[in-house]
Amino acid sequence: MQHWHPAVQRDANDSTVYKRYIIDGSGDSIAYPQPSVSPNPLPMVAPGIKKRLFNQIARIKASPNYTEVIGHGLGIIAKANAVEHIIPESTVTLELGATGNRVRIDFKKYGHDSIWIESRINGGDWAFLAIDTIKPYYDERPLAPGNTHETREYRLRWWDKSVAHGEWSAVQCSRWCWGLEWKKDFTIGYVACAIKCHKTHAAYSWLLLIKYKKGIRI
Q1: Which residues contact 115 (CB under 8 A, 6 or more apart)?
Q2: Interval 149-173 mean pLDDT
Q3: Whether the bond into 41 is cis, omega within 30 of 0
Q4: pLDDT tens, 83-94?
Q5: What residues does each domain of the chain span?
Q6: What is the C-alpha to C-alpha distance for residues 7 and 13, in angstroms, rounded to an integer?
Q7: Contact 76/108 with Cβ under 8 angstroms?
Q8: What is the distance between the alpha carbons of residues 166 and 163, in angstroms, rounded to a whole number?
Q9: What does CATH list as the number for 89-217?
């Protein structure tokens, strides 16, 4: 495999170069590139090499004679991540979803089980929102009745073995407004503005304007 695959890649590259030469090149004709020939017939290999390898590593480590010295010698001990991540890293953006505008929360778990997410609206009390294992998380809650705009803040912490722990991440927030404005044959579905803030400092990050024409997004 270690010789066959690079040879096939070289053959593909040579073929591409030749094709481009005969299409756009000039000068004398050249012969077709010859494919690589393996000196020995390639053996049949069953699929699932990675699974078999991991199972073999597990059997080696389960042996009573196994030591870390043996593991380092075989290269089967993973290198530890020297960087300690005290809080989750996340980004908050506003986007158009299938049923309307929504807040997208991207995060990095750094080996933790899940992320505990809390939210508050318009400076109210913090409330549990979700435990999420796969990014991104989408906050698709509609605006509260009577509201034309809301400021939603988010904070995250680690969730491991059914316990929320660690320090809270920096507070990030998203502000969105909703309305309809007719102008000729255009309908402006909504104007959404996102504010990214860290604790007491807030800065406008982007402004999104989505237009509709005859009910179709353009």
Answers
A1: 88, 90, 107, 109, 131, 132, 133, 137, 156, 157, 158, 159
A2: 92
A3: no
A4: 778 899 999 998
A5: 4-74, 89-217
A6: 10
A7: no
A8: 10
A9: 2.60.40.10
**Number of alpha carbons in the 13 Å side-chain half-sphere of residue 92:** 29
Distance CA 197, CA 203 (A): 6
Residue type, 44: M
pLDDT at 209 over 90: no
In three-state form (DSSP H/G/I as H, E/B as E, the rest C), the secondary structure along 18-36 is HHHHHHHCCCCCCCCCCCC
Alpha helical stretches, state H, the chain: 4-24, 49-62, 68-74
Contact 179, 203 (CB under 8 A): no
**Whole-structure pTM value:** 0.48
pLDDT surpasses 90 at 12? no
Distances (CA, A) of 95 to 119, 133, 152, 210: 18, 21, 14, 10
DSSP assignment string, 45-86: --S-HHHHHHHHHHHHHHSTT--HHHHHHHT-SPPP------
pLDDT tens per residue, range 39-64: 677 778 788 888 999 999 999 999 99
CA count, 13 A, side-chain hemisphere, 89: 5
How far is the C-alpha of 127 from the C-alpha of 172, rounded, in Å?
15
